[in-house]
Each structure stands twice: as structure tokens, then as C-alpha cells.
């Protein structure tokens, strides 16, 4: 049995609470890095069409020898693939690159409100779910106003909202709003891309337990009930970030980390982000 707790999503699908992110993992290295993650014990991989490494993730899944149902794989519809028909085609390509019959979780990567296509994109995700080619559907970088619109204009409540969460950018309001609608918050850039590992609060707690700052921060996410997907291409760190089930933070330690909030966003702001996520930086025009 895995030590990793599962979170039961609003449609009954179970997701391992700790996963492995592959943003900025070079395509040529993705297979080997994901194989290392499997060897360390991860069974949940978070990729995206925009990362251009779905093929490597798929090769690692296919070559792992693990039963398919023991692996949970998330991918995301890139911004340039939004729109009903385009999303259906993009999901087919993702399935083929990932070499899976069904994607466990498919997300809309960004709302891109300026293009106003996320509602029709969501309707395509609803169809993919009905067709059984995805097991759960969700969103990423959605603010409450974008979620409100989906809830008002479509049928299915997103299972997940994957947003930037780490000690210096906790987005407690977006997470709480998501939870209030039955949408599980999932923390991306959970270590603040490495920048949230040096505060006195985190390093002193790490010393207390003989753990690393990254392990303390991952523990903080887990004890907050958040799905968390740290990324590393460094073998020792891949293993270290999974080795977080032999200690428990106290309420006071969690409060001390909560006190690090500093509105320190490392990624784009979801209200404004409007990039296509294509290799050549252009939007398609068919
Ligand atoms: P993370 O917060 O996971 O930080 C990754 C950085 O921290 C890397 O530079 C890594 O270095 C370093 N690091 C990892 N582990 C340790 C450790 N134990 N000690 C010290 N440094 C460490 O950032 P990401 O932005 O990669 O986020 C994680 C995942 O979230 C992504 O891979 C992706 O799957 C997802 N994501 C989703 C987004 C979205 O829009 N939906 C946006 C951004 C991320 P190194 O690799 O060199 O070891």
C-alpha cells in the first residue's frame, strides 16, 4: 500500500494527494525523469500539452510495468487549443502521446478571459467525460469569477482547480471558494519554484525534525488538505520530496508557515494571462 493519502474528487475519482510535476522538464529527458519518479514511489504525474513532454511521460507510463490503474496522469488543454472542436482534437492527441485509453484528469490550463472561449472549452471537456476518454475534468488558474461563470452556464462542476499556492502566495480566498463549491484545490509551484525554502520559519521547523525545508513545505500542503505536485529534475530531490510521511507539523508550525503570506506570485496573473502556449508563440487561425 502506498503511504500517499488519496483525495476523493467530486465525481468519486481518487487522486493521490502528492504528485510529480513536469513543467520545464526537457522533452528528451522526460521519460527518464518520470521513471525516476515512479522508482521513488510517485504514482501521480502532472503534465500539460504546453510542456511538450507528454510523449516522454507516456513512454515512462508504458514502460513502467505498473498496472495502468495504479498511475494517475493529469494533462491540460493549452490556451491555443481552446474552443469546442479544437479541444476535442487536442485531447485525442494528448491521449495518443500519453499512450492511455483514458486521461485521469484533464484541465483547462488558463481561463484566458480576453478570448472568452473557456465556457465552450469546458463543454468539450464535459463531452470527453461523457465519452469515457477522461475520468475527471477540472480547471487551472481559475478565479472565483471564472468558476462562477462555469457553474452558471455549464452542467458539471470542475473536480479540481490547480492554482499557484506556496507559503508566500497562499490564495486562501480562491482555495476556500473552490472548496465551497466542491472543487479540490491543487497547489502548483508548491515550493515557490524553490524560493520559499529559505525563511527562518521553514528552516527552523526543518531543523526540529531533521527534514529539509522542501519536505516541511510539502508537509504543510498535505496537512492543509491540498493536492500538491512538486517538480524536480534532481534525483535526490525527487526522492526527498516524496519522503514526507514520517513526521507531522503541529498547529503552531502550520500557523507559522501561514504567516509567510506575502502575495509573492511567481507565475502570470490569471485575470490577464493571454499567451497561446504554442512553440512559435502564435495563435492558430483555422
Ligand atoms: P516548484 O515549486 O515545484 O519548484 C521547482 C523548483 O524547485 C525547481 O527549480 C527545482 O529544482 C527546485 N526544487 C525541487 N525540489 C527541491 C528540493 N527538495 N530542494 C531544493 N529545491 C528543490 O515549481 P513548479 O513551477 O515546477 O511547479 C510544480 C508543478 O506544478 C509543475 O512542474 C507543473 O506540473 C505545475 N505547474 C502548473 C502551472 C499551471 O499553470 N497550471 C504553472 C506552474 C507549474 P530542480 O528541478 O533543479 O531540482
The number of distinct β-strands equals 10
Query: Which class do the helix and strand fractions yield?
Result: alpha/beta
Radius of gyration: 18 Å
Strand order of the largest sheet: 3-4-5-6-7-8-9-10
Straight-line N-to-C gap: 48 Å
The CATH topology turns out to be: TIM Barrel
The biggest sheet amounts to: 8 strands, parallel
Bound molecules: NADPH dihydro-nicotinamide-adenine-dinucleotide phosphate
CATH class: Alpha Beta
Present the secondary structure layout.
Layout: E1 6-8, E2 14-16, E3 20-21, H1 27-40, E4 44-46, H2 54-63, E5 72-77, H3 84-98, E6 105-108, H4 118-131, E7 137-140, H5 144-153, E8 160-164, H6 172-180, E9 184-188, H7 200-209, H8 213-223, E10 227-228, H9 235-242, H10 251-258
Helix pairs in contact: 1-2, 1-9, 2-3, 3-4, 7-8
The chain binds NADPH dihydro-nicotinamide-adenine-dinucleotide phosphate.
NADPH dihydro-nicotinamide-adenine-dinucleotide phosphate is lined by residues 21-23, 46, 109, 140-141, 162, 188-194, 197, 212, 214, 229-234, 237, 240-241, 267.
Describe the structure.
The chain is α/β, with parallel strands linked by helices and 286 residues long. It has one domain: TIM Barrel. The mean pLDDT is 97. It binds NADPH dihydro-nicotinamide-adenine-dinucleotide phosphate.
Task: Write a brief structural summary.
The protein is α/β, with parallel strands linked by helices and 286 residues long. Helices cover 38% and strands 13% of the residues. The protein contains ten helices and ten strands.
